[in-house]
Structure of RagB/SusD family nutrient uptake outer membrane protein:
Amino acid sequence: MKNLIKSKVLVLVALSAVLFFPSCSEDFLDRPPEDSYSVDNFYQTNRQVASASNHLYSKPWFNFISNVAWPIGEIASGNARTWDARNQEFSNYSITGAHGTLTQAWESLYAVIAQSNSVINTLPTAVGPDISEVVVNNSIAEARYIRATAYFYLVRIFGSVPILADNTDYVLEPVVARNPVEDVYEFIKRDYQFAIENLYDRTTDTDIQAGRVSSNSAKAALSKIYLYEENWSMAYQLSNEVIQSGEFALLENYNDLFLEDSDNNVESVFALQWANTGIYAEGNAIQSFYASAGITGFSDGWAALGPSIDLQESYETGDERYYATIMEPGAFYPSINGGFTVPETINHQGTNVGIKKYVIGNPSNGASQSYPNNTYILRYAEVLLINAEAAIMGGGPVQEGVESFNQVRTRAGLDPIQNPDIEDIFHERRIELALELEFWYDVVRRGPEFAIEFLGNIERGPYNNDTTPPTVDSEQFVPTAEDLLYPYPTSEIQSNPALLEDPVPYDFDANTAE
């Protein structure tokens, strides 16, 4: 396993990131670099301890968000299509362990874990004697929240993976067994539970800096884990506690979620906090792949994917989310570059439309592949849909779930559905979260039988504009059950052949960092 062989390097990188993280646009990151500290004397004030987790909100995630999350979340799921041969392999299920995107997924997510582990395992013994235990535990809880989130992606992409609670344990032993899926989920739940118990509560601690996760953020994340485990009662209970807390709310206008100045709005439960320095890998690169050439003001804008015909046709008439997600020819966006009218010739990857979501134009700060707008990992609208699904599936009062469900629809300008079923929930999640890097996981969690049929019926082809009106050059691909999890990267298997052996139960009693 390459990243385990290099674990000593990762530990050092993680530690240096804790101590030397550069300033960023978000309030809690906007401070000058404090690059004269060592681990022995840095954590002497509450402010210094609070800054320990800053870097975990951005840079370690860069390769995953930029190069992995959309091929898996959107192209593989059928929400988007591409002619690019490399990423087209996600559409036709021809991915092998040699595919570099899988290597990036593995290395990026384990880098997030390594840097989180550095905070979790360093802080307890590195702080000065006058530091509040509450402050220390809050920073550790942030790191555990983010570590859990990285593991959640890993287990959904690869299935059984090694659980690393302390990278220093593997400096001399890079061959590490993988652990069963159920143990990975248990590890995730323990991390989120610790976060619930130790993160500040924004409803009472009103001075929490914008962008940081809170106790209710952790409840929301844990409710999603229980949703995946089909523990409907716990998913309902936790999501309902988040709703009742009043900490989050839906923005009135869906389109406002994706404007440059909407970072850390009241709907944001957890979002990655990107810098505005213009330095590569410190900013959000999604716009580089989603936008058309000329919109960004830089040399990027590659239109690397387009909204599939299937996704376009899934919107109901009058759904306001369409305008905020998909650029139709002739549409006008006043927020982009002082006013932008979509060209009549727009045609991302043969779809005859483009992408609006996460496209902000030439920002006030930023550079090519480095934009300042946040990437949502969890929004309050999804918490409402978790609550709705859990209730409808028997975890709570059905009518309360229906009300949560219809809050999302009403915001989108649609009529309520009086008796929604699981298919309505599934559809609503698809449209609400379209192109937010999530849909693949929603399809797969419904089980192989459903996923194979659904994915096999997705229209993935382009329009043929040589005909009038345009016709569709149909492309459909049927996955196998094995295609619903991705193979381990070949390089990781070569370095750690234990990945091919049977999973070994994780010893929770022998590990203290979980």
